[in-house]
Design a protein that fits this description.
By secondary structure, the protein is of the alpha/beta class. The protein contains three helices and six strands; from the N terminus they run αββαββββα. The N and C termini lie far apart (49 Å).
Length: 170
């Protein structure tokens, strides 16, 4: 009889512990505060002199798409529970692989974005950080012929890095 009561006591205790936890789960595996209902992604300005004028708009839209697709939070313009803002600080093309005749065989496009993330419910999750990603291309191609494709790839990688930093605790 004591074993029977002990078993029920352990089950009840386990249920109580599980109920006390506040897990927050999304389809992407992100950890989002249960209190959060809204999110905003500010316009990321272009502070780099070499970047194409459309880069700021493209990156801002990629970030908005990422949070819209990966969370169930309402995307609003400002004063949200969770907020992203920042600027593009660097846009650089440099040779990375030199052939024997001092000519580059590959070039690298690098983009750096400075991001400020604010969480109204947990200030320990706030951060200000620079995120950098790059893509390489053959020097037989001009930047203008591959730029759009490279920017798309880099913007996706940057948005994933920023999202993961904010919501996946890495």
């Amino acid at each position: 009889m004591k074993f029977f009561n002990l078993k029920y006591l352990l089950i009840a205790l386990s249920l109580l512990i599980i109920n006390a936890c506040k897990p927050t789960v999304s389809l992407s595996g992100a950890t989002i505060p249960t209190e959060a209902k809204t999110i905003s992604v500010g316009y990321f300005t272009n502070n780099s002199s070499l970047a194409p004028p459309s880069l700021a708009q493209q990156f801002s839209e990629k970030m908005r798409d990422m949070v819209s697709q990966q969370t169930s939070l309402a995307l609003i313009k400002n004063n949200a529970d969770l907020q992203f803002e920042g600027y593009i600080s660097d846009y650089n093309v440099a040779p990375i692989s030199i052939q024997s005749n001092d000519q580059a065989s590959q070039n690298r496009l690098t983009i750096t974005v400075n991001v400020k993330y604010s969480n109204k419910f947990d200030a320990t999750k706030n951060f200000e950080q620079a995120f950098t990603r790059f893509a390489d291309y053959s020097s037989t191609k001009t930047l203008s012929s591959v730029e759009s494709e490279l920017i798309t790839v880099i913007n996706k990688q940057l948005a994933e890095d920023i999202f993961n930093k904010a919501f996946n605790n890495w």
